[in-house]
Structures are given as C-alpha cells and as structure tokens.
Design goal:
Length: 362
C-alpha cells in the first residue's frame, strides 16, 4: 500500500534536489486576486511532517489569494541560504522560513531586510539576527514535558517505583527547539535521576552528549547500538526519551536487533514527536509507546494569517506569555498547544480529529 509519506513525496517531486515548487507559477503580484507572492523555505523532505507543512502553508496562502514559492533545503544549510537568496532576488513579498541551521541565515536575512521583505520564523526560531519579525511554533517546552510525563506515569515513578534504566536522546544541535524539548523533559526527569529511580547506564545525559545531527534516525540507531553493546550486556533498558518520531524509529530498530520485542525482553517505553504515519502505526502495533502530536494544519494557518496581516498592514496576533529572545531581540510569537498521543487516544485525536483517515493507519 502506498503510504501517505510516499504520496506526499511524489507530490513534492522527489527527483529534484534541492527542490523548488512554484505553487501557482507566474510572477510576483500577478495573482488574479492581487495577493502577491510568498516564499516558503522548508528544511527537508526526508521527514513526512515537513512535506505536510509545506503543502498546508501553500494551501492556506492560496486560499487567501497569494501565490506561494515553496523550496526544500534537503537538510543542507548552504543550499537553504542560496534558496532564500533566490527568493529575495525574485522579490517575494514575505518569507516563511523553517531554518535548517538556526544561525546560518544572518547574511541572507540582511538582504531580505534591505529588500523590505518581512520574515516569519516557522516552527524553529531563527537566532542571532534582528531581521526576523514573527515566530510561530508550538509550546516546545511543553513537548518535552509531555514526553517526560509519559515516562513518569508509565513507570509509576511518583509511587516510588524503580530503579529503572533510561537512555536519553535529543534533537539536532543546530535547531533551537532541541534545547526547549530537552529542558522541558529534564526539568521533570531530573528529580528521579537524582533519587536514582532512573539510571542512565550509558552515563550520557548532558545535552551535548545526546544530540542527533539533523534529527537523523540512522544516526540515532547507531548511537543506540553502541549504548546497548557497551552498557546493556547484562541488563535491560526500560525507557528511552526520544524527542522525535524519526529518532524513535531508529532507536526501535537498534533495540530489535538486540533481541528486544520478545517475552524475555519487552520493548522499553519510547516517546516521540510529530505523529508521523510510521510512528502512529508503530504505536498501534505496540512498539513505539507515545508521540507528541502537533496539528500542522493549525501551524500553517497561523503562519499564513501572519503573512497576510503583515502584508495588509495589520498587526498579527501573538499569544506567548514570555518573549522569545533570539539573542538579538525578543521575537513576538504565537505558540500552539501540543497533545500527547498513545494507543489509548490516537483514534480520538488523530482519526476523529481528521489528521489521518482510519484507512491510512491500516
Ligand atoms: C523540530 C520540530 C520537531 C521535529 C524535528 C525534526 O524542529 O519542532 O517537530 O519535526 O524538528 O524534523
């Protein structure tokens, strides 16, 4: 059966690297409804979520009468910079950017500012530049808290159970979200590490020891293999904190190759994020335990509304209680709420919520 991911990849035209889609074609401002053109720079097509993001942002902009130029940087920061440079040269009216490397866009955003092109930082905060106008994302610390809470509840740590072995994974070191996910989780897990109800047998728990460059599943799989070989010859791992579904799938592969998923060695609790199709299926099959669902339709809608408001001279709605400082200035932000999903509620949240059809999850 064709997966949703495969279908989306086909739409995205998987052959061309790096990929550019001119959603409506035509020149700037030539939309029949006179909306103008908005450049969208997404980080990668290797993860299903970003394909969904790209499609949803384009759809929202088109429904408001804009043309959209969507590009994917395929996880290459330099390629993303040159794609954004091209969009600036084409004099798009606004830019919506999900950065690959959050500190690599300084120069190109100077050019955007010189051309008076407003910039919306999408999902990942762009750091180290004054030339970013708004930020739209989810409450990223809450994502980490939901993952940690799941582990705490399933292991019944509040009832004093333990000790349990846990291993920790974090996201890409060049993505600002990585820090928020990690801090959100560790804030809740640290007391149990201190009380030794949770033990990290690998000894790797500092953020710099546990990051996964570009959120790459096979990289996480290799690290998990090394950990299992070195620290688990005579013990079992009870929980894995994973910040993202692609990493969870890599960790699961490593665990299976070490004999987990059997009566003698059940799989540990494994968290995740993004409710990607493969992971939701894995949850239904009883392998991955949990994911954090972020409704990308909402994220895309808020981003498109922000662009529309800016271009029509209105002030976009923001809602974050504390300023998101990018190292140069506080960036006004709109944050959405994530939801924890496991086997018990996936049908209610994802199927009844219209994110996947029941057929897609078969
Ligand atoms: C993060 C994003 C996560 C996940 C990850 C890997 O920036 O917030 O939801 O998608 O990238 O793509």
């Amino acid at each position: 059966m064709r997966t949703r991911r495969a279908a989306l990849a086909t739409i995205a035209g998987a052959a061309s690297l790096p990929f550019t889609l001119s959603a409506c074609g035509g020149d700037k401002g030539s939309s029949s409804q006179g909306g103008g053109t908005i450049g969208i720079a997404m980080p990668t097509r290797a993860s299903e979520r970003w394909l969904t993001d790209g499609k949803s942002v384009v759809k929202n902009l088109e429904s408001k009468g804009y043309q959209a130029k969507l590009v994917y940087g395929d996880d290459d920061p330099k390629a993303q910079v040159s794609q954004i440079e091209d969009l600036v040269k084409q004099r798009v009216d606004a830019l919506i950017i999900a950065a690959i490397d959050n500190e690599s866009l300084n120069d190109v955003l100077e050019k955007a500012a010189a051309a008076k092109i407003p910039v919306i930082s999408y999902d990942r905060l762009i750091l180290g530049t004054k030339n970013v106008d708004y930020y739209v994302s989810f409450d990223n610390e809450q994502v980490g808290r939901l993952q940690a809470t799941y582990i705490i509840e399933k292991l019944r740590l509040e009832d004093g159970k333990g000790p349990f072995n846990i291993e920790l994974f974090a996201g890409s070191p060049d993505d600002n979200n990585t820090k928020y996910f990690y801090e959100g989780s560790m804030h809740l897990l640290q007391p149990y590490l201190d009380s030794k109800q949770l033990v990290v047998q690998s000894g790797q728990s500092k953020l710099s020891d546990i990051t996964t460059l570009r959120w790459d599943g096979p990289t996480a799989q290799k690290r998990m293999n090394r950990i299992l070989a070195k620290s688990y010859a005579n013990r079992t791992v009870d929980a894995v904190l994973s910040p993202y579904d692609g990493i969870s799938i890599g960790v699961l592969s490593a665990l299976k190759s070490y004999g987990y998923d059997s009566d003698r060695k059940p799989l540990p609790i494994i968290t995740g994020q993004d409710a990607e199709l493969a992971s939701v299926k894995s949850i239904i099959a009883g392998e991955q335990s949990q994911t954090v669902y972020k409704d990308l339709r909402q994220l895309a809608e808020v981003a498109a509304n922000m662009a529309d408001d800016i271009l029509k001279g209105r002030t976009p709605r923001v809602n974050s209680r504390r300023a998101y400082n990018n190292g140069v200035k506080p960036v006004p932000a709109y944050l959405l709420q994530p939801t924890s999903v496991d086997k018990s509620n996936y049908n209610y949240v994802l199927v009844l919520g219209g994110y996947y059809t029941a057929d897609e999850l078969k």
